[in-house]
Amino acid sequence: MQHRQLGASGFKVPVLCLGTGTFGGEGAFRGFGETDEAGATRLVDIGLDAGLTMFDSADAYSAGRAEEILGHAIRGRRDRVIISTKSAFRVGPGPNDVGSSRYHLTRTVEGSLRRLGTDYIDLYQLHAFDRTTPVEETLGTLDDLVHAGKIRYIGCSNFSGWHLMKSLAISEKSGLARYVAHQAYYSLIGRDYEWELMPLGIDQGVGCVAWSPLGFARLTGKIRRGQPLPQTSRLHHADTLAGGPTVPDEYLFRVVDALDTVAAETGKTVPQVAINWVLSRPTVATAIIGARTEDQLRQNLGAVGWELTADQAARLDAASALTPSYPTWHQRLYIERNPPAV
């Protein structure tokens, strides 16, 4: 398994990371899967055998149950794994059971440590930006937790460009721990990350931890023109987070057609090609893969160890291209001053 630097840090992570959104399958996460402790342990075993040592969770996944299951699955081998987890979403009914305040973050880190059965977290990320808490308070709290040895590195997730840049500026001004990772949605049918966040990551040394590289299960190769959704597709769960943003059918089919062609040329599967494309992009340090079954995990592991040709990558780029939002489309008219990141 190839390893890459995580942003402008000295920390190396494997290019594939196993997400635990399928662990537990409670509440809003029932659409992702219902992996129990035995199933999770088997997935961890397969991952470790393949060199996949990084596992990503969150306190909000199945109301903390995902962290508990992961903690049980890695018991006795903590020194062999990299744990990534997140906080900021609501985890209780109280007014302070959400966000990035000192009060909430201190409690959520302690809760995650307890559920995971560890005394430190390798990468701790804010699951979302909290505009109701001063950035100085949030970063000061994270810095204290780093100095206390409870967190090794910090990152963010689902931030806008100004959220991230303001945070980095305050870290530099105040000598606080800085975000080295941005866990962001990035796929062949979700390329918004390239418009502002990727150039920011290149400039500021923030690595991308790409989530849902298969576009909310739309790029599994099972969705085709004129065919019904597979019975097990998460897209049936429109009332959960599982379905993701709406994607126009014709756009999706155009991308899948291009993936089919490249898959035939490479002898790989559609999801393997889709994940490999994400890993070929600037700033991407690792891609989070999810799996309900052992077979799905083994197939996704086949996304690494080979490379797309420049021509194949260009064809996938062209099939998935969309007009970016303003001001990116305007800036791209003047590439002499604004050379594209990709």
| CATH architecture verdict | Alpha-Beta Barrel
Terminal CA distance reads 25 Å
Tally of distinct domains: 1
* SSE string, helices as H and strands as E: EEEHEHEHEHEHEHEHHEHHH
For the biggest sheet, the summary is: 8 strands, parallel, barrel
Q: Treating each run of at least 4 consecutive H or I residues as one helix, how many helices?
A: 11
Q: What Rg is obtained from the alpha carbons, in whole angstroms?
A: 19 Å
Look at the helices and sheets and give the structural class: alpha/beta
Would you identify the regions where 5 or more consecutive residues have pLDDT less than 50?
none
- What CATH calls the topology is TIM Barrel
**Overall outline:** globular
The CATH top-level class label:
Alpha Beta
Q: Count the beta strands.
A: 10
**What is the strand arrangement across the widest sheet?**
3-4-5-6-7-8-9-10
What does this structure look like?
This protein starts with a strand and ends in an 11-residue tail after the last helix. It is α/β, with parallel strands linked by helices and 342 residues long. α1 crosses α2 (65-73). The protein has an 8-stranded parallel β-barrel, surrounded by 6 helices. The chain has 11 helices and 10 strands. Helix content is 36%, strand content 15%. The protein has helices at residues 37-49, 65-73, 102-116, 135-147, 161-174, 197-204, 249-266, 270-279, 294-301, 310-320, 328-331, and strands at 3-5, 12-14, 16-19, 54-56, 82-87, 121-126, 151-157, 179-185, 207-211, 284-289. It has one domain (3-331): NADP-dependent oxidoreductase domain (TIM Barrel, Alpha-Beta Barrel), CATH 3.20.20. α6 links the parallel β8 and β9.
